[in-house]
Design goal:
The chain has 20 helices and 14 strands. It is α+β, with helices and mostly antiparallel strands and 500 residues long.
């Protein structure tokens, strides 16, 4: 707290002339006790030290200090048990506060200010910025941030995940925005960069190594728990939270990224350059641009590629949603290649489906052609099964269907009508009726139905009634094999079977 010269003079007068205590001065002048002590210390004065009252813990203080020096992280609860066993009878709460004041504090560590050459280094990290609700899906909002260590130029791009494809896509867009690539890229020990680390032995993600080889930069992880080594990207993420994201409104992810791009090219580039207050970050970046590595002529192939299994229904599951495929590819393993806008499905090297990507959850994204083809296939299958059954039971039905096709009749409805007549009248009666209809030159189910009714009336039979039995009833009505009567003769004695 900064106080005026008049306040400092009044504090000194009340302390020296009126002999007021520090607490009295602070209470009457409405300032903090530490402010009063600081004014007195700057004037070379110090308040009289308060006398310490005897405490129950005084005999155990050397033991406590010695134990904490040897085990600095020992909990106060365990230390209280140890002291209690040695005769201490004070309160646990008071003891906990006492240990907090006696526990040794680690010495403050000093850091050298890191300086890099133009185009030498960039730092990369993810930042989590809450969640977005898209339909029924709650997607994480992740910010990919890259900072050039020399000029402090920031690149910012938001994604709905932190997968490897998004990680590499952020690199590509950052390199395009910079017009080049730094020679060394620093990473935290995130899984997209480092799969395993034991001491100084590091196993990089093979996808990142392939990407780095293509762009000719060196991926370099920072030491474990040493965030200061990439402090420029850490500070940039904090700067993004406070200067860009706080209280910002946006319609969707595309709108947010458009605003982020304008912010990076505007306000973030016009801020003061930390190395020289007379220059801006934009000016420092223009000087650094010529030192960046040139980008390769051939673009790196991006896209998330996963193998998917198609079940009985013609859909593949990718990222919480189902995408339709042709029905001819069910029960097969296919490949999905996805980018932020499109989902493509491949069978080997052939692309069999393409859909706009959805970030919803549980949605079915369908191509109308896939569904129509499946419906037509099902209809043809039902028709083929009906024709096969009809032809096997009544050979003349094939001739009738051929004649009907020549006349342009609907074969599906004719087949269904003949199958119903087959179930009601039987195969032999239907055969005779079809022969009669063909002889009259009328290949139509109505002519067959009239022939069947005429034959029934001539024979004096009642109208037929179709009876459909369930599978349970059909099992109960299964034929039973009768036993030979000689088996029953063995049960009756011979004398009982003779006539008197």
């Amino acid at each position: 707290m900064v106080i005026s010269a008049d306040m400092s003079a009044q504090i000194l007068r009340l302390h020296e002339t009126e002999r007021w205590r520090v607490g009295t001065i602070a209470r009457q002048l409405h300032v903090h006790r530490d402010t009063v002590r600081r004014v007195l210390a700057q004037a070379g004065l110090s308040p009289p030290a308060a006398l310490l009252r005897p405490s129950r813990v005084d005999p155990f203080r050397p033991f406590i200090l010695q134990t904490l020096a040897k085990f600095p992280t020992l909990t106060a609860a365990r230390l209280f048990d140890m002291v209690h066993e040695r005769g201490y009878r004070g309160s646990p709460d008071h003891f906990r506060h006492l240990v907090a004041s006696l526990r040794p504090r680690p010495a403050a560590e000093a850091y050298l200010r890191l300086r890099t050459l133009p185009g030498e280094q960039a730092q990369v990290d993810w930042g989590h910025f809450g969640y977005l609700q898209i339909g029924r899906a709650r997607r994480p909002l992740m910010a990919f941030v890259m900072v050039l260590s020399y000029s402090r130029r920031i690149f910012l791009r938001f994604f709905l995940d932190a997968r490897m494809d998004s990680f590499l896509r952020g690199h590509v867009e950052a390199f395009a925005a910079y017009g080049g690539c730094a020679r060394v890229l620093l990473y935290d020990n995130l899984k997209s960069a480092v799969l395993e680390r034991i001491g100084d032995a590091v196993r990089f993600n093979p996808e990142l190594l392939k990407f780095a080889t293509h762009h000719r930069f060196e991926p370099r992880p920072v030491a474990v728990a040493r965030g200061n080594e990439k402090g420029r990207v850490e500070r940039s993420i904090r700067y993004i939270r406070e200067s860009f994201f706080a209280a910002r409104e946006f319609a969707d992810l595309d709108d947010l990224n458009a605003q982020a791009r304008r912010w990076c090219e505007g306000l973030a580039s016009d801020r003061r350059w930390p190395e020289d207050g007379s220059l801006s970050v934009r000016q420092a970046f223009e000087a650094e641009r010529a030192s960046l590595l040139a980008l390769p002529a051939q673009e790196y192939p991006l896209g998330e590629r996963v193998a998917v299994q198609v079940g009985k229904t013609p859909y593949v599951r990718f990222d919480l949603n189902d995408y339709s495929v042709p029905h001819t590819h069910v029960r097969r393993t296919l490949a999905v290649l996805a980018d932020p806008e499109c989902v493509r499905v491949f069978d080997g090297a052939a692309e069999i489906a393409r859909h706009a990507r959805s970030y919803d959850a549980g949605a079915q994204i369908e191509d109308a052609a896939h569904i129509d083809a499946l419906v037509q296939h099902k209809r043809r299958s039902r028709g083929h099964r009906g024709v096969d059954r009809l032809s096997r039971a009544v050979p003349s039905a094939s001739v009738l269907l051929a004649r009907a096709a020549e006349r342009g009749e609907n074969l599906g409805s004719i087949t269904a009508a003949l199958l119903r007549l087959l179930d009601r009248y039987g195969a032999s009666a239907l055969q005779a009726a079809i022969d009669s209809a063909l002889a009259q030159g009328v290949p139509h189910p109505n002519a067959v139905r009239l022939a069947l009714e005429r034959a029934r009336e001539e024979q004096g039979l009642p109208p037929p009634t179709a009876l459909h039995l369930s599978e349970e009833v059909a099992r109960r009505d299964a034929p039973v094999r009768s036993h030979a009567l000689a088996n029953y003769d063995r049960i009756v004695p011979a004398d009982e079977g003779e006539q008197p």
